[in-house]
Amino acid sequence: MENLKLNSYYDVIIVGSGPAGLGAAFKVAENSNKSVLLIEKKKISSGGLRNDCKQNYTYPVGFPLEHWEEEEAKILLEEVKEHLKPKMEKRLDIEKYVKRAKKLNVDILAIDQAHVGTDKSGELIKGLIKQLKDMNVTVALETEVKELVANKKEMILANDEIIAFDNIILGPGRADYDWMQEQMDKLGVTYKDNVVDIGIRVEMKEENYSIVKDYYDPKILFPNKVRTFCTNSGCAHIVREKYKGYYSVNGHSLSKEKKANNLVNFAMLKTIRLTEPVVSGQQFGKILGEMVMQLSGGSVIKQRVGDFRLGQRSKKETFDDDLYDFKATLSNAVAADLSLSMPAKILRDIWSALKKLDSIVPGVLHPSTILYYPEIKTYSNKPQFLNKNFMVKEGYYIIGDGAGTSRGITAAWASGIRAANDILQEK
Ligand SMILES: Cc1cc2nc3c(=O)[nH]c(=O)nc-3n(C[C@H](O)[C@H](O)[C@H](O)COP(=O)(O)OP(=O)(O)OC[C@H]3O[C@@H](n4cnc5c(N)ncnc54)[C@H](O)[C@@H]3O)c2cc1C
Asked: Which among 173, 261, 270, 314 would be 20 to 30 A from 407, CA to CA?
């Protein structure tokens, strides 16, 4: 924890220094004299702003439609740009892909994107924190909020310090969903979480997914709620992220200054909406993740397309044989059998989408292509909001991915602006 003496009261406290928290902090600091405390439990914000940092600037990518209209999202995206100063990627000749996709009932969205890279994002975040400090925002890094106090505008830090506030904005992200649930139970805020994205991460040689030369992160929508997500190329790697009880795979890439490894990875996800009796997306994701932990001896699994097509498991000894001509970037994924681990309905829809993709960009299903499982994106707890600016109780706001108000960096930032606007407009 930083050696920083905090006051016993702030006009506005913001929990979490991800894009949602930053968006709120900038908006309040730039437009009022309110005292602001931004609290972050890590040394640096831990979500996508820190990892890869691919920014999408086209509605509806990242904006859940139940909360956002195009017109407002567009205005707020301009505000996000003023702070993140994106250098947009070029989008070249995608017409040929769009034409082929249409024949298969598949949509390719044209998106404005910028990419920072995991090696450069730290600098971007440090720059933003410095700007906030220069505007007199108190930034407490490595400082964890233990809990909120019920029926009193106070919160307790991990070191038991109590701090009071007039307004609090919670932007803890997706990973801390159970903490968020406890706080909502305490505040008497009702919530639901019945949606989850389950899928695989696909890794291949760049020559087998050449579309990335024309379109950095192609957003492709397939039938049955399957879509591509978070494509990485250049110097691209797959990572294993720890969640409570399981691992999920994810992908990232370094900035263009780093030497290319000529590999590409992207997620192919299916959105599942659950109904009775299982209604928790987080719980469903956890059950599937735990099953893979059991089957893989505590890791995630990988399978070559060649083995999958033959209906045989991939094996460690033969994983790099013959046509299998590149090494997996996530070496501690265990060679195994996807069809033994994944629910049939999800596997069927994802495989069907991959076959369509192989017709649009021939090469994706080369035998050497690797399928990693699971990639799980929980949608968090969707609180019952009292207004469109994400207020859940007078003086309390919940924003960002942790509240289901966003699904990406730019929309998370926009959700912070909205909550801040509500506070600025009050009285
Ligand atoms: C590895 C990875 C890569 C990603 N890449 C991209 C990408 O390239 N592009 C994109 O658009 N999206 C990406 N995403 C998704 C993106 O991270 C989220 O959409 C976005 O960060 C959500 O912003 P947020 O502010 O709601 O939450 P987060 O960014 O998760 O920030 C929440 C912050 O709150 C802190 N926190 C939580 N609880 C407490 C507490 N009790 N006390 C104090 N602090 C707390 C956390 O440490 C964290 O820093 C990625 C996600 C991951 C995990």
From this structure: 261
Contact 201, 239 (CB under 8 A): no
Residue 345 tokens, joined: 């309905």
Q: What is the mean pLDDT of residues 2-20?
A: 93
Contacts of 111 (CB under 8 A, 6+ apart): 56, 57, 58, 61, 91, 217, 219
Q: Is the CB of 251 under 6 A from ligand 1?
A: no
Please work out whether the CB of residue 15 comes within 6 Å of at least one atom of ligand 1.
yes
| Whether residue 283 sits in one domain with residue 158 | no
77 assigned to some structural domain = yes
Q: Which of 63, 230, 266 to mutate to test the pocket of ligand 1 (most atoms within 8 A of CB)?
A: 230
Q: How far apart are alpha carbons 245 and 29 in whole angstroms?
A: 38
The reply to whether 254 falls in a domain is yes
Do 159 and 244 fall within a single domain?
no
Asked if 323 and 401 sit in the same domain, the reply is: no
Chain-centroid distance, C-alpha 270: 15
Give pLDDT, residue 427.
53
CA distance 54 to 115: 4
- Distant-in-sequence, close-in-space partners of 252: CB < 8 Å, separation ≥ 6: 51, 52, 118, 232, 236, 237, 239
Residues 155 and 239 in one domain: no
Q: Which atom of ligand 1 is nearest to the CA of 179?
A: 41
Which domain covers residue 302, as residue numbers?
195-378
In terms of DSSP bridges, do strands 219-222 and 107-109 run parallel, antiparallel, or are they unpaired? Answer: antiparallel
pLDDT digit string, tens, across residues 318-359:
999 999 999 999 999 999 999 999 999 999 999 999 999 999
- For position 158, which CATH number holds? 3.50.50.60
Domain identity same for 318 and 245: yes
pTM for the full predicted model? 0.84
- 330 phi/psi in degrees, rounded to 5: -100, 90
Question: Ligand 1, atom 5: nearest CA belongs to which residue?
Answer: 48
Residue 2 lies in a domain: no
Atom of ligand 1 nearest to the CA of 411: 19
